[in-house]
C-alpha cells in the first residue's frame, strides 16, 4: 500500500508543479526539464506517468481530484448536503480562477471534445464523482436532497452544471468571476434537488 501511495505522491508532485509552471510562465514556455526540477522528481518518473508535455493536459482532472481530497477534510460536518455541494464548487472554482490558465482550461476541454479514447472528465471512478455521489446519497437519507430523482441523475446534473459554467467562462475569456457567478447560478440550476424538510 505504501508503494501505491508513493507512486500517487510522485504523480501528484509532477502534476502540481507542471500546472503551477503553466500558470506562471505559460504552457509553451515550460519545459519538461523545468517540470522535473520543480517537482523534485526525475525524468524517468515523468515519462513513467506521461508520454510528453501534451499528456499533462489530461492531468487537470487529477489536479481537481487532489483539490477535492483536500476539501473533504476541511468541510464543516454541520453543513447540510446541498451546502456541501455548493462549498465544493465554490472552493474548486476559486482554485481554477486563481491557478489555472484560461487558455489551458479551454485547450483541455477542446481535447475532450475530439478524443476518441477515454474522456477523463467523464470517468465516474474519479474522486470527483465518488464524492458527489456520496454527498447525494447522504443528502437523500437525511431528507436534504430530494428523493424524487436518482442519485445518478443528481450527480449528472451537478457535473453538467459545472461543465456549463466552466465552458461559458472559457468562451467569455474569463471576463467575470467564475467563483462569483457560479455562487449565484449553481443554487438556481440545482434548486429543484434541494429538499427543505
Outline the structure in words.
With 197 residues, the protein is mostly helical. The protein has two domains: 1-50, Homeodomain-like (Arc Repressor Mutant, subunit A); 57-193, Orthogonal Bundle (Tetracycline Repressor, domain 2). The protein has nine helices and no strands. The protein has helices spanning 2-25, 32-39, 43-49, 60-74, 81-99, 102-114, 127-141, 151-171, 178-190. Helix 1 packs across helix 4 (60-74) and helix 5 packs antiparallel against helix 7. It is globular and about 55 Å long. The N and C termini lie far apart (43 Å). Residues 1-7 have low confidence and may be disordered.
Which descriptors apply to this entry?
197 residues, mainly alpha, Arc Repressor Mutant, subunit A, Tetracycline Repressor, domain 2, 9 helices, 69% helix
Offer a concise description of the structure:
The chain has 9 helices and no strands. With 197 residues, it is mostly helical.
Helicity level, as a percent range?
55-70%
Count of helical regions: 9
Q: Approximately how much beta-strand content do the residues carry?
A: under 5%
How far do the termini sit from each other?
43 Å
Number of domains: 2
* Rounded average pLDDT: 84
Radius of gyration: 18 Å
- The low-confidence runs, each spanning 5 or more residues with pLDDT under 50, are 1-7
CATH superfamily of the largest domain: Tetracycline Repressor, domain 2
**DSSP strand tally:** 0
CATH architecture of the largest domain: Orthogonal Bundle
